[in-house]
Structure formats: structure tokens, C-alpha cells
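Predict both folds.
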Amino acid sequence: MRRVTMLIGLACLCAMAAISLNARNPDGRQAGQPPQPGPEMQRLNFLIGTWDTQSEYEKSPMMPNGGKQNGWYKAQLGPGGFSVIADLEEDSPMGKDLGHEIISWDPKKGSYTVVVLGNAFPGAIMGTGKWEGDDFVILNEVGEGASAVHLRAAYLHPQGNVLHIEESFKVGDGPSKLMYKATATRK
């Protein structure tokens, strides 16, 4: 009797192992296989590399005299290829800007999550990224309520070794105004 019980237990164990080996995760992967980055992350490959940046600020309440800025941006894939992690440094009319940027696809939201950290502000600026046609657009908001500043950075038709970027801003429900134009050249 004990031998029969052991054989039944062993048979159940083998059946469970066979079922788990053939099991699939909700995203269609075979159980036990690590997830792979989707095409949304592959679309961000244009950012990967080291870039020299030159920007020109428009005259605005945020930058009354306008000005030029030079710097660099270095992006690499994050762990598993599920994010792009970048470091940046720029000499602007307001001084040296240092920062980090993380961009990752969020399948639940159906958009990119963007996190910006820098020496010019406390905490993190959280944003959203999306494709508008051939342009990659990052939307951020700084502040709250009627005085919130809405930022929109657009990578215009990103491809090749030169990127054109335009950033605009608006305060509250006011009109959108160009803040700066930048050119980034891959090293």
C-alpha cells in the first residue's frame, strides 16, 4: 500500500512538472523564459550612444536674455533592455546642468514613463513619452494648478547621426511658446 501511495505521488509530481514546463505566461512566453523588450523599446534605439549637443534658448520669462548652451548626452540600454538610461551635462546661461534621464515602456499605460533627475531642482520630474507620427515627444509638468509649467520636448523625425529637438512650454492654460531648439550630433 505504501508503495502504491508513493507511485501515485511520484506520478502526480511528474504530471505537475510536465504541465509547468508547457505553461505559458500571459504574454505568450514559455514559463521560465525571461521577458524580452518589445518593439516599443526598440524604437528608442535612436537615443543610444554619445551625443554632442548645441542648444539655443529663445528669449522668454524663463530665460529673459535667451542664450546658447553646449553639452553632451550619453544613453545606454538599462537592465534587460527595458529602459534607456542617460547621463547629461550642459553649460547653459544659468550655469552647469547635470542630470540623469530614464525612459521605459509601460505596457499597462500604453506609453513611456520618463524620469528626469538634475542638479537644478529637488526630487524627480516624472513625465510621459509617446510617438506623434515620426516624432518622439516627452511631456512633463512642473508645479501644480494654474501656475503649473507644461513642458513638451520633441525629437523631430529621429534617425541617423543628427537629432533635432525642440522644447516648448506653457504656463497653466496659456499658449505654448518655443523655449529652445537643439541639435545633437552622435560622436
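Second protein follows, with its predicted C-alpha cells after the sequence.
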Amino acid sequence: MLIDRRTLLRSWQAIAATVAALAAIPAGLFFAFGAGSKGRAADPSDPSAEWIDLGLAAEVTEGPWKARRFRREIEDRWKKTVVDESIYLRRRGETIEAVSAICTHTGCLVQRISNRFACPCHKSDFDEEGKPTSGPAPRPLDRLETKIDGERLKLRFVKFRPGLDRSEPMAS
């Protein structure tokens, strides 16, 4: 049986279209379901959000804000990554407060200078309570939720999108 030229070209076009469609399926699934972390943005009010153990609550003494670094594990669909994070803690009576060390302007790390916080990147300054006093920071430093579980201090760590005038959680 002989195949004419027109039939042969149509057959190859159909085969090429099928191969291209099959090759596009993984890319389509990637864009449909994303490659991000297992959850969406962390919601501070979500009771199932992960609490991070920061050690003994008694180690946080009464007084000014103190820097604290900790490590957390971020898991996306392919790998686990260990990330160093920074916060500031202070005790006021029985309550332990936490504030993010991330500037609300562009996400640089703020530094504690005497009785204020300062961002070295774009010269935003924050008072003792984390409220902006000068510079381009659009909102106060973000407060983080803490709790004392037995003798342990737990933190619900959330990163917030910088540059906005409101606190908007973002994916880990």
C-alpha cells in the first residue's frame, strides 16, 4: 500500500502534536499546583501552624529586647532546607514578647542600638516598641506570637511581606 505525500505529512503532524502535548503535561501540572512549600502562606491565627521551641522560658529575663537566633526547617516538594532566623525577645512580668528582626521596608535585618531598632539598609529607625520613627519603613516591626508550654518557650514564626502598610503573611 502506497501512501501519498499529503497523507504522510498529516500523519507526522498528528504524531508531532501528540508528542508536544505529552511533553507539556509536566509543565502544566507544575504551574497548576506550584512548586512552593507544602502549605500556603502561614496564617498567624491558624491553630495548626507550627510552634518552634526556643528553649527554657526562664532564660528570657526581664529587661530590654535581646536578639535570639534559631534554625527552622523549610520543606518544599523536593528538598528540605535549614534556615537561620532572627527575632528579638523580652520579658514583661509573666509575658514574653517577640518581634521580628526583619525590617518592614525591604526585608533587611534590623539591629538593636541602645533603646531603639535601626535598619542599616535604608536608614529606617524604630522606637522601643518597634514603631517607625524615621525612614521609609511603612509599618511597625511585626509582632510574633509566643506561648509558654510548661517550662518551654514556643514561638509561632511567620514572615511578612515587606513594603506594605499592613502585615501580610507570606509563604515560608
